[in-house]
């Protein structure tokens, strides 16, 4: 019998600023390679992109942009859902065997207004026993420490 798997969020870019929305490109999201490296997201892989500003959500694939430019550009039809300066969260997932979830790392890359990395937080996936015993502090209502204008 094959082991069950779960979709695991292994990396995200949190509260980045959209630098461009380009209708005339055939599709995808362009992301600064430094941000891809920090999260472990590879080019041409699928990501979810959530628009904090208007609530839109979509799936697309990643293409690398210019190194160090802080580029976050929604291309093609996705440009209808995002505008320059919107805030977004970009999340990447992998299919993971259940037996490998506990202790697995998930990276959250925090950026400033120019999409430059200010912090990388690594979270370890707890066991259900740790959760039930109260060994994992709640993150409910945890504020985001940086105000982005």
Automatic annotation (TrEMBL):
Keywords: Autocatalytic cleavage, Cytoplasm, Decarboxylase, Lyase, Pantothenate biosynthesis, Pyruvate, Schiff base, Zymogen
Residues annotated as catalytic: 28 (schiff-base intermediate with substrate), 61 (proton donor)
EC number annotated for this UniProt entry: 4.1.1.11
Free-text description of this protein's post-translational modifications in UniProt: Is synthesized initially as an inactive proenzyme, which is activated by self-cleavage at a specific serine bond to produce a beta-subunit with a hydroxyl group at its C-terminus and an alpha-subunit with a pyruvoyl group at its N-terminus.
Modified residues (Pyruvic acid (Ser)): 28
Entries under InterPro entries matching the protein: Asp_de-COase-like_dom_sf, Asp_decarbox
Note describing how the cofactor binds: Binds 1 pyruvoyl group covalently per subunit.
Pfam family, one: Asp_decarbox
Co-factor requirement: pyruvate
Protein name per its UniProtKB record: Aspartate 1-decarboxylase
Species: Entomomonas moraniae
Gene name as annotated: panD
């Amino acid at each position: 019998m094959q082991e069950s798997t779960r979709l695991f969020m292994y990396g995200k870019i949190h509260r980045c600023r959209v630098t461009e929305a380009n209708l005339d490109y055939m599709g995808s999201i362009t992301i600064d390679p430094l941000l891809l490296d920090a999260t472990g997201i590879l080019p041409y892989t699928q990501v979810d992109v959530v628009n904090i500003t208007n609530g839109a959500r979509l799936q697309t694939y990643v293409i690398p942009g210019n190194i160090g430019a802080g580029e976050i550009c929604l291309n093609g039809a996705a440009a209808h859902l995002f505008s320059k300066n919107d805030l977004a969260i970009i999340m990447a997932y992998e299919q993971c065997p259940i037996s490998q979830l506990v202790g697995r790392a998930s990276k959250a890359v925090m950026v400033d207004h120019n999409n430059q990395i200010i912090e990388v937080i690594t979270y370890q996936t707890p066991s259900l026993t740790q959760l039930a015993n109260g060994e994992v502090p709640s993150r409910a209502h945890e504020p985001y420490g940086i105000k982005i204008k």
